[in-house]
Amino acid sequence: MDYLTKLSDALRSLGLLHGDIEKIGSQIETAASEYKTNRQKDQPTPVVNAVLHRPQAEIDQENSRAARHETRDTNRLRLETWGVVVGAIVAFATLGQLYLTKRAVNIAAISADAAQKGAAASQESVSATRQSIESSVNAIQLDQRAWISASINLWNDSGKPMMEIPAAGQPLIVRISYKNSGKTPALHVKIFARREGFIASDKFPSFEYGESKYGSPTTIPPDSNVVMDDVITRTLVQSDRDKIFSKDWRLYVHGRVAYDDVFGKAHITEFCSFLRSGGGYELCARHNGMN
Questions:
Q1: Model pTM above 0.70
Q2: Mean pLDDT of 161-170
Q3: Are the C-beta atoms of 281 and 253 separated by less than 8 Å?
Q4: β-strand partners of 260
Q5: Where are the domains of the chain?
Q6: Rounded to the nearest 10 degrees, how much is the dihedral formed by the CA atoms of 104, 105, 107, 108?
Q7: Alpha-carbon span 142 to 16, nearest angstrom
Q8: Does the N-terminal or the C-terminal CB of the chain have fewer CB atoms within 10 Å?
Q9: Which fold does the domain 148-290 belong to in CATH?
Q10: C-alpha–C-alpha distance, residues 28 and 34, integer Å
Q11: 174, 155 in Cβ contact below 8 A?
């Protein structure tokens, strides 16, 4: 019994000793670790120095190459810098030129518009002046030009106008008087006159003319009256009188006068009349007028 107790105590002592030994070992390891750490902190980090031995020619060649590259890069950088500067100058000059061109175009447009308006105003003024002058000239010409009119009358054999139809067996004489009622002569006068035989009262003459009966051009002075040759000279028979008084037939006398005024303008006077039953002549409904 004592033996077992002693053995148990011995084992208990050994267990305690083993635990103490483990504690001491742990402390030793901790202290060693701390020592090692402190030592590493105190000592500088080792630097490895390695010297590479290369041939000097290779080093010089590499240095020369590097120098050339550096020089090339420097020159390139310088050229690029100058290129940027020149480009900026050109761009600035171009912008300035564009601005000046735009201003010049605007000024030219304004000047052109003003010139166009001025030309239009001048043209309107010239046109108005021309129209005024033309109106004045036309008014003067109308006031001063020749005006030819024609009148048809019956005449007796004594050379006097008559207003009644002559009796059967007496002469029927028809004459035309041409009067220039203007203030200047009528030049190059050409007279075309004719009579048409008895025509039904609902018909008109043909108003066709050949050459001028009176030959060479004639001048009619202003405010003068000219009696030309007889258009009709015949002895009136009873059948003619019956036609005149029946109103179913008409005896026409018509013609045309062509002339120039002193201003060089051509004019025409047309006339047409038919014998009235009561005597004298009556104007036709057409072919009468002056221009």
A1: no
A2: 85
A3: yes
A4: 187, 266
A5: 85-144, 148-290
A6: 110
A7: 164
A8: N
A9: Immunoglobulin-like (2.60.40)
A10: 10
A11: yes
